[in-house]
Amino acid sequence: MESIMIYVPAILAVLGLLFMWAKRSWVMKQDAGDGKMKEISSHIYEGALAFLNAEYRLLSLFVVGASIALAAIAYVVPTTHYLIIVAFIFGAFFSALAGNMGMKIATQTNVRTTQAARSSLPQALKVSFGGGTVMGLGVAGLAVLGLTVFFILFYQYFMGGEWTNTNQMTVVLETLAGFSLGAESIALFARVGGGIYTKAADVGADLVGKVEAGIPEDDPRNPATIADNVGDNVGDVAGMGADLFGSYVATVLAAMVLGNYIIEDMGGNIVEEGFGGIGPILLPMAIAGAGIIISIIGTMLVKISSNSAKEAEVQKALNIGNWTAIILVAISSYFLVIWMLPKETLTMGFFVGGAEGFEYMNINSIRVFYACLVGIVVGGVISAVTEFYTGLGKKPVLSIVQNSSTGAGTNIIAGLATGMISTFLSVLLFALAIWASYAFAGFYGVALAASAMMATTAMQLAIDAFGPIADNAG
């Protein structure tokens, strides 16, 4: 099993993509409603696709220019290779594909959710969250698949599939960094461009409709409503998908790079520990691969049985799926860390400051798991904090509602104040997570904490994409 572990994350990613395709097929088979519903949905779909096509045409020029720059860098820097250009192009393509795929399923699920809501609330949740599941698994599956496959290819090309030394592995990982750079490049433009369009369309629709014409929000008599709904998809779905794709890849790759430093600190003497001597490098990919299968389990638990269910029950169903995935990632991380890292000690450098620089310490692999656990717990708490500050019926939102009774000015002040306060706990938690994970396992622990936290990206994205789908359905 140890000899084929390098291929396991790719296999798990393929399984996730197969499940995604099956779920997509099921969603597309659902009733899309009458002619008028299909007409409105088609306008949203065409508008979102037109935006992405225009955006990707411009981004293709950026990819060409950046590829030329990377070729010059590869010529000058000895620790990289011209193959970084190939990795960069595929990273950009996969990132754009993830966003495009999510946008398409979101704009095709909204009308099916509307039709399903005519029959029952449980069916509407099943359809809308099914569309979100396609988005989440598509992003996570493509990220893990692309990263793993390119690592295998570069590992075979530069090192013959066998451990030689950390210098050669540095070339492998720096070349692989092109995949992450490509993903992040597309994410930057997609997130910012889609976000600006979203807010412009949303505010424009409100100004024309509610302020000038005096009609309700999302009223079909307001043509800007279509632009508003298009914005939800290109910003909150396509932009968010590309953004998290890039972040996911960069997080896992950072942990792999630091894993190479662990091997270097140990003098490259962990070959006898199995996994071809690269266990610390493979571990982040293994956690990411396990996270895909665990996210599938989590999505299966999101369901309600009553047609008269309140909003709190729907939120409870989402929380059950989310927390189940978080707990299962914690359990799987324990077994993966104990199995894949040296059983006795790892040598890690800890920064002690001043002239002393780094101090090298031997730590047990269980401390690496504690670092992972820190990231997992903080990720779960962040979800709870977000729910508290944004959920209907919660004190922060009710406070904004109460302040709105005296006019737009107090509404804006209360909203801004609540938004600013909501960031405090998140910043504090992340600072605590960085300190604690570093105390347990150095920089490698910090990177693994982030990797473990993002292992449930597929589940988190499914919940995120569910929002715009349900909003458009309304």
TrEMBL record:
Q: Where would you find the membrane-spanning parts of this chain? A: 6-22, 58-76, 82-103, 124-157, 245-263, 275-302, 323-341, 368-392, 412-435, 441-463
What keywords sit in the KW lines? Ion transport, Magnesium, Membrane, Translocase, Transmembrane, Transmembrane helix, Transport
User: How would you describe this protein's topology in the membrane?
Assistant: Multi-pass membrane protein
What coarse category fits the chief subcellular location reported for this protein? Answer: membrane
Molecular function as annotated in GO? diphosphate hydrolysis-driven proton transmembrane transporter activity; inorganic diphosphate phosphatase activity
Superkingdom of origin organism: Bacteria
A single GO cellular-component term from the record reads: endomembrane system
Q: Does the keyword Magnesium apply?
A: yes
What Pfam family is a match for this entry? H_PPase
Q: Where in the cell does this protein reside?
A: Endomembrane system
Can you say what this protein is called?
A: H(+)-translocating pyrophosphatase
Q: Which organism is it from?
A: Salegentibacter echinorum
